[in-house]
Write a structure and sequence with these properties.
The protein is of the alpha+beta class and 376 residues long. The chain has 12 helices and 14 strands. Strands 1, 2, 3, 4, 5, 6, 7, 8, 9, 10, 11, 12, 13 and 14 form a 14-stranded mixed β-sheet that branches. The protein is globular, with a radius of gyration of 21 Å.
Length: 376
């Protein structure tokens, strides 16, 4: 049967079915970590996601004989295009069966949509901002992902290359073995840095208090620290409010490290959480009836893996050893709580400042993912 590609209306019902396809496709796969359905639905609905203030998007579904066989979303980030002076579209939320007719039809639809909006190049998989999952897996298909990353079958890169897409950039990920004690050299560096720059580490036990004290400052710091990274789109005021409410009240705060100067100005932050990969797999994308319980157990109970979600340092303090303070603070907690491994999540392959953080640890680079590009 011929492939039919249809634009998906931006309604909760239609987008929910779109999101569910991206989960159902991986049924039985032991490495896939499904997103929370409501989270992806909210990301794709203009009425929920403040990124639509400066983005436009269109979801497409491919059907064969009335059954869904693929999906893709085209995104145009007007703010980022104005910053770079380019006319670039993004594709994201892409999944498909291993069938050339399906991928041909999907990408023809999204590329045509992008051209009709005046775009001259397309990249992906990317989201609306860096807060969304990005990067197609090209190595590490036999490794369980994390709650913050994309998993895809190993045939995806082959289809991308066949369609004329080439590498734009790669991210790598490491699995770090937590040592039995904080390395002495790291302790010395951390203590020297704190004394030299008059810095201190703050710990919080109240989500409300950290939101009130540094919620806005934290996301403003992320904007500042990540401004020059590949594809980074500055978070707007409405997005900052959105993410403050979404994230800061659910963190396991002992795993959050806040560094401030003598005037209590935010210098850096390290946000880590117990791994939710196994819990998300058990939840199967749903909070109810028992998804919330699996997630709560993973967050509050014993968990021997942590995710290093983000580390951000003010530009004037980068390359001055401030990153050592986060591990000086957090490693003792990990050791006390029986944590054995840490997942770094995505870091650009050429970001040597980030990768130098891991020199103190036993580690292995176990996943690689790619942003592809193609002229339109």
């Amino acid at each position: 049967m011929a492939i039919t590609v249809k634009p998906i209306p931006a309604t909760k019902k239609a987008i929910t079915e779109y999101v569910k396809f991206g989960i159902d496709l991986y049924e039985g796969n032991e490495y896939f970590v499904p997103p929370m359905i409501f989270d992806d639905v909210h990301t794709l609905l203009p009425s929920k996601n403040p990124a639509f203030d400066y983005c436009k998007a269109q979801c497409f579904m491919a059907y064969r004989d009335g059954r869904p066989v693929g999906r893709i979303t085209g995104i145009i980030n007007r703010q980022l295009n104005e910053k770079t002076g380019e006319a670039v579209a993004r594709f994201g939320f892409v999944d498909f069966i291993d069938d050339e007719e399906v991928t041909d039809a999907l990408f023809k639809a999204v590329e045509g949509w992008a051209r009709s909006k005046g775009m001259t190049r397309i990249i992906g998989p990317m989201g609306f901002s860096d807060m969304d999952r990005e990067g197609m897996l090209v190595e590490g298909f036999d490794e369980m992902g994390t709650m913050a990353t994309i998993y895809n079958y190993d045939y995806y890169p082959r289809h991308m290359e066949r369609l004329g897409y080439v590498k734009d950039t790669d991210w790598v990920e490491y699995r770090i073995t937590i040592p039995d004690k904080v390395p002495d050299k790291m302790t010395r560096i951390a203590e020297i840095v704190m004394k030299k720059y008059d810095l201190r580490i703050l710990k919080y036990t109240s989500g409300k208090k950290i939101k009130n004290d540094y919620g806005r400052a934290l996301f403003e710091l992320i904007n500042e620290a990540y401004a020059d990274l590949y594809g980074y789109s500055t978070l707007s005021e409405k997005q900052i409010e959105y993410y403050i409410d979404m994230y800061l009240s659910i963190l396991r705060l002992e795993y959050v490290s806040v560094v401030v100067d003598k005037d209590d100005k935010l210098v850096g932050v390290g946000i880590t959480i117990p791994s939710l990969a196994a819990a998300f797999r058990k939840a199967k994308g749903k909070i109810l009836p028992m998804g919330w319980w699996h997630i709560l157990r993973a967050m509050k109970g014993h968990n021997d893996v942590v995710d290093l979600l983000l580390i951000a340092v003010r530009p004037e303090y980068q390359s001055k050893g401030v990153n050592s303070l986060f591990f000086y603070d957090l490693l003792n907690l990990y050791i006390k709580n029986g944590v054995k491994f840490a997942e770094t999540n995505l870091e650009l392959e050429d970001n040597k400042n980030v990768q130098s953080q891991w020199e103190y640890f036993e580690r292995r680079q176990h996943r690689r993912r790619r942003a592809y590009t193609k002229p339109l």
